[in-house]
């Protein structure tokens, strides 16, 4: 028989090639990533984090119930500040989502290798952030059951959406973004789900991943087509992500209010979105890489590169601030003047100065490599950038409505208890989904990591050794 | 499913422990005149599909078509509702405000394109397919980064169990196995 002449490796555990038996075999990248899901005993911090997130999620359910039963009057909003925390949340959470698509699509097209290990969970963050964002425009409607009027459907009133309205554009842009992100995320995961299926020991777990993997078998022709489809989706997602926050900014820029009616808004919003989104990615990635011992996969190089992109987008945001101040100086428009002066000295001056200090000042620390590679500093900066960018949206929305075109209509917005709950509750939804994701699905692309290591001429075991200096 | 008779053989699967050997072997298999050859790898091996003589996918062209279709569908939707079905004068603006229609046209173009890219990938790959004979290959495991499988299927006109096995064994694999269907 021919098989006799072959090395008798198969079926004989003693002679299996290295990497076959469990104990002595060095861990590959795939082992490290899949073990988090398949073999790791659920750590205590996971239960703790999940419990806290779930409690917050329940508070969101409570909030939604209150809005449905009592109406939007539970918030501190009133004429003229009719867009309160709900719309701030919309802009804030969509912004957080943008980093995921940036990392997964734009950097894929630019063939930036460092995106790889951050891409999967950044994409997951995009989806979860969009879930949070998508809730609020509907909740703040007052009569949320009429949200379907945004969709074109043949209803008995012959009612059509108002196609000239940015709010209708928003509905289309956000739902397209959600669907495309979902496809992109799921498609990126198919080969890895196949790997999980082949690795799972438990039969039920095998079926779970097997069903999700859609029968992926690693066929060379499939890989080729898959690769093409991934690039096509990335090429589509890139203009899409830029369009989404641009359209959100048009909700403001198309109106005539001082502080909103600026042509700088679309690029300014997109840059701010990526800025805050990367801060969120780092806030999640840095604790995860130490908790799950992924320092060799999410390396200092990744954090450093993300820091650089944050610096650049942060500077674009600062340019946006400068333009907002330049506009009244250049045009002499009295309403714009009144607004700008109010921002510096009015009721909300504290928030305005805080956002300037954080977004324009603190983020300049990112110029230094020593800061970008210091995990504590990066956590600190990211946390503050999140706060700073939240305050930026607060200032944009609240002050423009407060100091509007007619001084007899100037009324302030005083947040109430439910407004504060509206700020924190969506974090419950976001983190509950995120905790479930890291426990149930491979959070780092395994096939892609292996391919990259192969292209660099390293086996993934060698790569472990080569990067273990981190 | 896994009846051990020869009539139910799907193919012979040679296993390699690195993609370079696999590519070389795939080239030799093609040179020897085998046509029904497939390869299964844990990650994409560049050039493997071309070596196996597979044509490039038409998917990009379909996606381009879908983008135009989506754009057109978006425009028609807005034109129909605003101009034909229920024209409404709002602030004296033209009923056919095509510049304002562009954003929804764009969003639908992207949406149609994305669904075509994803759906096309699945349909051309004939996925989802829960069962495939290659899963029966002994040691089949996509999660091992040192296993690359090259399969010559029984349907190939040059296939002969003995000779093909001998030929595959000469290409330096770590194992040659039979995949039952």
Can you characterise this structure?
The complex is a heterodimer of chains A (470) and B (181). Chain A is mainly α. Chain A contains 16 helices and no strands. The longest helix of chain A has 34 residues, at 166-199. Chain A is globular. The model of chain A is unreliable at 1-24 and 462-470 (pLDDT under 50). Chain B has helices spanning 19-31, 48-51, 59-85, 98-124, 161-169; strands spanning 9-16, 37-40, 148-153, 175-180. The longest helix of chain B is centred in the middle third of the chain and has 27 residues, at 59-85. The termini of chain B are close together.
First-last Cα distance of chain A: 51 Å
Oligomer: heterodimer
The average pLDDT score of chain B comes to 86
Helix content of chain B: 40-55%
Tell me briefly what this model is.
Chain A has helices spanning 29-38, 44-70, 85-109, 116-139, 166-199, 203-213, 220-253, 265-291, 300-331, 334-345, 349-361, 369-372, 375-402, 417-440, 446-455, 460-467. With 470 residues, chain A is mainly alpha-helical. Classes of the chains: A mainly alpha (470), B alpha+beta (181).
Q: How does the SSE layout of this entry go?
A:
The complex is a heterodimer of chains A (470) and B (181).
Chain A: H1 29-38, H2 44-70, H3 85-109, H4 116-139, H5 166-199, H6 203-213, H7 220-253, H8 265-291, H9 300-331, H10 334-345, H11 349-361, H12 369-372, H13 375-402, H14 417-440, H15 446-455, H16 460-467
Chain B: E1 9-16, H1 19-31, E2 37-40, H2 48-51, H3 59-85, H4 98-124, E3 148-153, H5 161-169, E4 175-180
Antiparallel strand pairs in B: 1-3, 1-4, 2-3
């Amino acid at each position: 028989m021919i098989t006799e002449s072959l090395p008798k490796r198969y079926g004989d555990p003693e002679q299996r090639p290295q990497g076959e038996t469990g104990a002595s075999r060095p861990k590959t990248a795939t082992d490290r990533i899949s073990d988090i899901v398949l073999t790791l005993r659920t750590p205590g911090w996971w239960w703790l984090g999940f419990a806290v997130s779930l409690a917050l999620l329940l508070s969101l359910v409570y909030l939604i119930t209150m809005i449905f039963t009592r109406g939007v009057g539970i918030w501190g909003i009133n004429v003229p500040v009719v867009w309160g925390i709900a719309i701030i949340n919309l802009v804030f959470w969509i912004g957080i989502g943008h980093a995921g698509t940036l990392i997964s699509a734009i950097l894929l097209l630019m063939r930036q290798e460092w995106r790889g290990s951050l891409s999967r969970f950044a994409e997951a963050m995009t989806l979860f952030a969009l879930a949070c964002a998508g809730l609020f425009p509907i909740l703040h409607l007052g009569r949320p059951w009429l949200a379907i009027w945004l969709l074109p459907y043949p209803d008995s009133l012959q009612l059509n959406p108002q196609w000239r309205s940015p709010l209708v554009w928003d509905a289309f842009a956000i739902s397209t973004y959600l669907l495309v992100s979902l496809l992109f995320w799921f498609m990126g995961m198919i080969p890895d789900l196949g790997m999980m299926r082949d690795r799972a020991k438990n039969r039920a777990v095998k079926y779970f991943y097997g069903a999700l993997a859609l029968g992926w078998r690693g066929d060379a022709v499939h890989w080729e087509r898959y690769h093409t489809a991934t690039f096509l989706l990335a090429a589509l997602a890139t203009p899409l992500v830029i369009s989404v926050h641009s359209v959100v900014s048009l909700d403001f820029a198309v109106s005539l209010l001082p502080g909103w009616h600026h042509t700088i808004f679309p690029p300014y919003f997109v840059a701010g979105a990526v800025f805050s989104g990367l801060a969120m990615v780092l806030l999640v990635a840095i604790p995860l890489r130490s908790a799950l011992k992924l320092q060799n996969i999410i390396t200092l190089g990744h954090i450093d590169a993300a820091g650089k992109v944050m610096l650049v987008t942060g500077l674009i945001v600062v340019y946006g601030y400068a333009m907002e101040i330049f506009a009244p100086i250049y045009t002499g428009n009295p309403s714009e003047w009144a607004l700008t002066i109010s921002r510096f000295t009015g009721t909300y001056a504290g928030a305005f100065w805080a956002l300037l200090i954080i977004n324009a000042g603190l983020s300049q620390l990112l110029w230094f490599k020593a800061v970008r590679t210091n995990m504590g500093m990066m956590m600190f900066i990211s946390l503050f950038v999140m706060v700073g960018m939240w305050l930026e949206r607060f200032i944009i929305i609240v002050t423009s409505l407060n100091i509007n075109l007619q001084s007899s209509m100037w009324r302030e917005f005083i947040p109430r208890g439910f407004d504060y709950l509206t700020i924190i509750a969506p974090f419950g939804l976001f983190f509950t989904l995120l905790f479930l994701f890291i426990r149930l699905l491979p959070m780092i692309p395994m096939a892609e990591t292996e391919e990259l290591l192969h292209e660099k001429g390293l086996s993934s075991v060698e790569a472990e050794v080569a990067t273990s200096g981190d | 499913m896994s009846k051990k008779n020869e009539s139910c053989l799907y193919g012979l699967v040679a296993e390699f422990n690195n993609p370079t050997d696999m590519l070389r072997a795939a080239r030799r298999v093609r040179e020897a005149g085998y046509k029904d050859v497939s390869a299964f790898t844990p990650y994409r091996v560049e050039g493997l599909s071309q070596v196996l003589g597979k044509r490039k996918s038409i998917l990009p062209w379909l996606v381009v078509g879908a983008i135009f279709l989506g754009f057109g569908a978006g425009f028609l939707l807005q034109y129909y509702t605003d101009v034909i079905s229920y024209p409404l004068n709002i602030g004296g603006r033209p009923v056919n405000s095509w510049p304002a229609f562009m954003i929804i046209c764009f969003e639908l173009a992207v949406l149609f394109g994305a669904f075509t890219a994803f759906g096309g990938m699945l349909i051309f790959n004939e996925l989802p397919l829960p069962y495939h004979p290659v899963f029966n290959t002994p040691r089949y495991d996509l999660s091992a980064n040192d296993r690359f499988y090259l399969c010559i299927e029984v349907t190939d006109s040059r296939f002969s169990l003995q000779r093909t096995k001998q030929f595959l064994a000469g290409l330096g694999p770590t194992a040659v196995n039979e995949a039952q269907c």
